[in-house]
Amino acid sequence: MSTPEHPSAESSPREEFASTGTGPADSDGDATRVVRAGLPEEEPYAPPLPGPVFAAHYHLPGDPAGAPYAYGRDSNPTWTGLERAIGELESPGDDRVETVAFASGMAAISAVLLSQSRPGSAVVLPDDGYNLLIPLRERLEGFGVEVRTAPTAADAQLERLDGASLLWIESPSNPGLDVCDIRRLAEAAHERGALVAVDNTLATPLGQRPLALGADFSVASGTKALTGHGDVLLGYVTCRDPELAASVRHWRKIVGAIPGPMEAWLAHRSLATLDVRTRRQAGNALAVAEALGARPEVTGVRHPGLPGDPAHEQAARQMHRFGCVVSFTLPDKDFAERFLAGLRLVDDATSFGGVRTTAERRGRWGGDAVPEGFIRMSVGVEDAADLVADVRRALDAAAG
Ligand SMILES: *Cc1c(COP(=O)(O)O)cnc(C)c1O
């Protein structure tokens, strides 16, 4: 913490992987781009997506300077393919964009916050963001960093920016689903010399492009909707400034928060369905949110795609699709537990973004400032009519 992270000597391996005739064109739509994202140049009799490379070290004769692959904690060809793919989706047609993959979303978040903070510097966090931002805040303060917080809604973080060096945005926020004006906040932060990072986990790169909205870093957990099958933990940081990318990459090397090659490969493989999954999920989430909104025992239904949601107008200005999460409140804890137990098609599980619908009572964790009957539901890719029927049936059963 006491020494600034300087861009490291190791080179980015992305040049070595650079393609090609198979890469997407700027004019291609999302569904077209995701099936080709990050693929290497076509080669006769080679697989379209090369399998995972398991290597702790690589053959390395002579001078290691500029070697794309030397040691397994620094770089791996399977990461390179995934990083290239995510970069293409976060910032299409952008040659300068660089992505650094991490072992988890928290590894990626910690890498940005810890590599870009110094003793005496000030960081602005949301006070309604991912619950591990709270222990991370304590850690930052222990290192002598001033941490300020404000809610995501109504761009309240604007008021805390004077003298800050880093603004952390989470929009939509998890689990409250509030949305802020990313462009407005980024401009205000830049005027004051602060860097801007956006947690893009909930939206995915197809739902929102933080770099185009002015952010310096787009950071996300790939554990959720990006990979979408509930079988991988992963995180990433995408940015455009090569020095920022190098400092985040160097942080990964120092702390060793690296993704396994198998996880990176599974993630890359699952990107091909990112368009169909997120499109279907957003449609299903809206149908479920509308059905919930019609029930008198359900209050506070939130989904950014819901016309009339407090966040809808701003979400519609900066998001391309509205995500899979619906949150709402049932009368009390027992009602909520009976509702969850009565669902047939909805697994009781944490996390979100998977192909199977899940839900949980957030109050069971004790970390979020939410009512006891607050439910976060992650809507999957099932048939909307089946999900809506299941939710209605479980509400009836819970009312008893
Ligand atoms: C899940 C989540 C994280 C943490 O990601 P992991 O992959 O679980 O470490 C960070 N931010 C948001 C918004 C999340 O939902």
Automatic annotation (TrEMBL):
Keywords linked to the UniProt accession: Lyase, Pyridoxal phosphate
Main enzyme class: lyase
EC number: 4.4.1.1
A cellular component annotation (GO) from this entry: cytoplasm
Residue ranges, compositional bias (Polar residues): 1-11
Annotated positions of the N6-(pyridoxal phosphate)lysine modification: 224
Cofactor(s) required for function per UniProt: pyridoxal 5'-phosphate
Domain of life: Bacteria
Single GO BP term: transsulfuration
Segments of this protein annotated with the region Disordered: 1-48
InterPro entries named among the record's database cross-references: Cys/Met-Metab_PyrdxlP-dep_enz, PyrdxlP-dep_Trfase, PyrdxlP-dep_Trfase_major, PyrdxlP-dep_Trfase_small
MF-aspect GO terms: cystathionine gamma-lyase activity; pyridoxal phosphate binding
Protein family (similarity comment): Belongs to the trans-sulfuration enzymes family.
Protein name (Swiss-Prot/TrEMBL): Cystathionine gamma-lyase
Classification of source organism: Bacteria, Bacillati, Actinomycetota, Actinomycetes, Kitasatosporales
